[in-house]
Design a protein that fits this description.
317 residues; MetI-like fold; 77% helix
């Protein structure tokens, strides 16, 4: 419990700093922020500038504005879009966050499901043909950026084979599971390919070190099967670094969805961020950045907690 408490205390300053910078985006606008947000034409409408000035509290200094904004955030009020009157930021997040989360979670699950057995097998067959092949394949996968993998998959699976649709999204609420899965495959593979390679290489290195420990050698001497030794004795102590990296990479995957959602036109958080930047809708951008940053920080907190649960030495230390 003390480890968890210390971890929670450490993330509080991080959340304060992140939220402060998110609330200060409007300070980056040159000139009159109200005119920049509304545009010259809309700013000429009677009362438009005054409404935005009051909505964003532009007459207050940065600290006062941050305190009031943080108070609204604590009550679940992230404001309303300047470009689309009446559209609450919380409604936008509620509509789009499930898509980004689904992409991230499915990509991470696919990466772990493939990387763990591949890493274990590569460590068991270290130096042999299969291990050399996996090392070469993982090196190639790490070298390819996500957007390039997505483009290549579109070219092969859509242009050449006509197997999967290149863009678009079908929501689960429409109960069209087959088309939903078909439109999910290419983005998920594009997101997870690099993670598969990184996880596999990391687990292979840790597993090779674990297989030289005395308790593993003792298990082998007792006549236990290789599968039992690898997955029951060697995998857990070899997974600490993998768990840490998986937590960090989950946050990175959320960031990677910005490019993937733009490429495949998926209506998630990432695509809305791009639209908010190009449309100069900073109120929406503030809310989206805050949600992504808080999710990233909380994921790292969960990683620390999971690490402490798996390794008794951390709890005792």
């Amino acid at each position: 419990m003390r480890t968890i408490g210390r971890s929670i205390i450490r993330i509080i300053p991080v959340l304060v700093i992140v939220s402060f910078f998110a609330s200060s985006f409007v300070e980056l606008l040159p000139g009159d922020p109200a005119i920049r947000l509304l545009g010259q034409e809309r700013a000429q409408a009677p009362g438009a500038r005054e409404r935005v000035t009051e909505q964003l509290r532009l007459n207050d200094n940065v600290i006062v504005r941050y305190g009031k904004w943080l108070g609204d955030v604590a009550t679940g009020d992230l404001g309303e879009s300047v470009k689309t009157e009446g559209l609450k930021v919380t409604d936008t997040i509620r509509q789009r966050l499930p898509i980004t989360l689904e992409l991230t979670v499915v990509a991470q699950m696919l990466a772990l499901l493939l990387a763990i057995p591949l890493g274990v097998v590569a460590a068991y067959r270290a130096g042999r043909r299969l291990d050399r092949f996996l090392n070469s394949a993982s090196f190639a996968a790490i070298s390819l950026p996500q957007f390039l993998v997505g483009i290549l998959l579109i070219f092969v699976l859509f242009n050449q084979l006509d197997l999967l649709p290149p863009q678009g999204w079908v929501r689960l609420t429409e109960w069209d599971w087959w088309n939903h899965i078909r439109r999910l495959i290419i983005p998920v593979v594009a997101l997870s390919l690099t993670e598969i390679a990184v996880f596999q290489r990391l687990l292979r290195a840790d597993m090779m070190a674990t297989l030289q420990n005395d308790f593993v050698l003792t298990a082998r001497a007792k006549g236990m099967s290789p599968t039992h030794v690898l997955f029951r004795h060697a995998l857990r102590p070899s997974s600490f670094s993998l768990i840490t990296l998986a937590g960090v990479s989950t946050g990175r995957l959320i960031g990677g969805t910005v490019i993937i959602e733009q490429l495949f036109q998926l209506p998630g958080i990432g695509l809305k961020m791009i639209d908010s930047i190009t449309g100069n809708d900073l109120v929406v951008l503030q809310g989206l950045v805050l949600v992504v940053a808080v999710a990233y920080v909380l994921l790292n907190l969960l990683v620390e907690i999971a690490y402490a649960l798996l390794d008794p030495r951390i709890r005792r230390g």
